[in-house]
Amino acid sequence: MEQLKHECGVAMIRLLKPLDYYEKKYGSWAYGFNKLYLMMEKQHNRGQEGAGIASVNLNNKPGTEYMFREKAEGKNAITEIFSRVTEEMKGELLMGHLRYSTTGKSGLTFVHPFLRRNNWRAKNLCLCGNFNMTNIDEVFDFLTAQGQSPRIYGDSYITLELMGHRLDREVERLYQEATAQGLTGIDITNYIDNHIEMANVLRTTMQHYDGGFVMCGLTGSGEMFSVRDPWGIRPAFYYRDDEIIALASERPVLQTTFDIDSNDVHELLPGQALIVHKNGKSRLEQIMPAQKLSACSFERIYFSRGSDCDIYQERKRLGEQLTQPILKAIDGDVTHSVFSYIPNTAEVAFYGMTDGFRKLHGDVRTEKVVWKDIKLRTFITDNSERNDLAAHVYDISYGSLQAGVDNLVIIDDSIVRGTTLKESIFKILDRLLPKKIVMVSSSPQIRYPDYYGIDMARLEEFCAFRATMALIEERGMWQLVNDTYLACKRELTKPKEEMQNCVRAVYEPFTVDEINKKIVEMLRPADMQAPIELVFQSIEGLHKACPNHPGDWYFTGHYPTPGGVRLVNQAFINYVDKVTKK
């Protein structure tokens, strides 16, 4: 319902046969690009701000281009960049990226892939990724201390410079080896191109980073790689056969693109890299020691495609587990309750919720109560009129319940800011005159920012946090805010590995139910008639439904990396400074 900016998406292809093999077998020189296009379109939900592609041809002669890149902005970026693809760009190595900005930086400059040029093929580097680094200041200081001067302060550019520097060192190492063997001229170049060890480059680069990432890259000499963060925060999946190696951010993308079974697709493990050498041989390499698994649970609840066989079942379980708290909210009156969902990502949880009720009570009444219309253009400049337009993005099915008699139970995957509920959903649902509205979230209360690639960076964005601060205010507990503020400041003076999340203290005096009631009070439109009750998923229920994705920092404040802990403490300091200056 509330559109969060998604993580980015990645797609990679390595053609293992000569290029004319694919043209003869599949009837087109563009076989690889067609597959890359399909992979990117199937991940379009992960990037609507821009997209880019890159390719490397292993056999182009000196004096002709062998490394290509195209980028574009906007929701039609995928179509635009592939419309520019020509036969001259064909190559054995292909890479694509879909961008969603989580840093506020926009423009073609910040669209991946990023390219570092050099006259030596092996020193050309093209990077893209699904990532957000929490310690880019430390990495920047490390680079500048070595005498480098990055042109742009941003994790993508700085990573390109750092990895490019390490690639240069790897080439120089091989140059020394080649000359020691008595090689000269082109034989040195060939030796370097044939012996590049990307594991060396990745180990000496990625050890500096704190954050969630899947980093992908190509070199001009024909190396391809993808490496996943050691906590397993961001996802990556790959497929290999005798014709192709492919990698994507989501498993169903590979299944659909290559018409394969889920068992044919494998997940890249935390800290692991998939490395494909110039000769097409591939291997898995542990680049960093795996840390405590913190695979993102929000991937399962919201971001990843629900067509994944495991995610589909997990989302159904998330809905079914809410049966008992919903039953309590409607006072056991299933007969006079209508069940529905907010389009569209909560649909699978809705099926699980209604399955749970059917197991207990037989048939239940379900309706498509809410419809989402096209996004209305807010060309009116007056704020009140613009808000009125925004309130009509959603519409309802009139006559779908009995006025004054039926409860309306409506499920969404998450309630983050609450803005859409307040300005649109609650107002329009009230037109049906339900006896009671039970608003259900298949995820727990979102209380803390994300710093690993999702656009949720400020505490005051979250309705659960705002409700908690309102409770503190009305109960005269401002000393708790002062104590937490000072505690956060003290944490920032400690070594990063010793820091703890002090923001958790502001929630401790309150129950989930108390915060729920305050959220309702804050979001409820003044002229609304029907009573509202919120039902959230429990932390225990989340982990029961998604046992292999324990990363729950959004809900619990248990950040997997020191950088996340540092940033949440800083976020609370920023919030208090902002409030007290008003």
Secondary structure layout:
Elements: E1 9-15, H1 19-26, H2 31-41, E2 50-56, E3 67-73, H3 77-83, E4 93-99, E5 114-116, E6 125-133, H4 136-145, H5 155-180, H6 186-195, H7 198-206, E7 211-219, E8 224-228, E9 237-240, E10 244-248, H8 251-258, E11 266-267, E12 272-276, E13 282-286, H9 297-303, H10 309-320, H11 323-329, E14 337-341, H12 347-361, E15 365-366, E16 370-372, H13 383-390, E17 394-396, E18 407-412, H14 419-430, E19 436-441, H15 463-474, H16 478-491, H17 512-523, E20 532-536, H18 539-545, H19 553-556, H20 562-580
Parallel strand pairs: 14-15, 14-18, 18-19, 19-20
Antiparallel strand pairs: 1-4, 1-10, 2-3, 2-4, 5-6, 6-7, 7-8, 8-12, 9-10, 9-11, 12-13, 16-17
Could you characterize the architecture of this molecule?
- With 582 residues, this protein is α+β, with helices and mostly antiparallel strands.
- The protein folds into 2 domains: 9-291, 4-Layer Sandwich (Glutamine Phosphoribosylpyrophosphate, subunit 1, domain 1); 298-580, Rossmann fold (3-Layer(aba) Sandwich), CATH 3.40.50.
- 37% of the residues lie in helices and 18% in strands.
- The chain contains 20 helices and 20 strands.
- The chain has helices at residues 19-26, 31-41, 77-83, 136-145, 155-180, 186-195, 198-206, 251-258, 297-303, 309-320, 323-329, 347-361, 383-390, 419-430, 463-474, 478-491, 512-523, 539-545, 553-556, 562-580, and strands at residues 9-15, 50-56, 67-73, 93-99, 114-116, 125-133, 211-219, 224-228, 237-240, 244-248, 266-267, 272-276, 282-286, 337-341, 365-366, 370-372, 394-396, 407-412, 436-441, 532-536.
- It has a 7-stranded antiparallel beta sheet with strand order 3-2-4-1-10-9-11, covered by helices on one side. A 6-stranded antiparallel beta sheet has the order 5-6-7-8-12-13, covered by helices on one side. Strands 15-14-18-19-20 form a 5-stranded parallel beta sheet.
- Helix 5 packs across helix 7 (198-206) and helix 10 (309-320) packs antiparallel against helix 18 (539-545).
- It is globular.
- The two termini are 32 Å apart.
- Mean pLDDT is 92; it is low at 377-381.
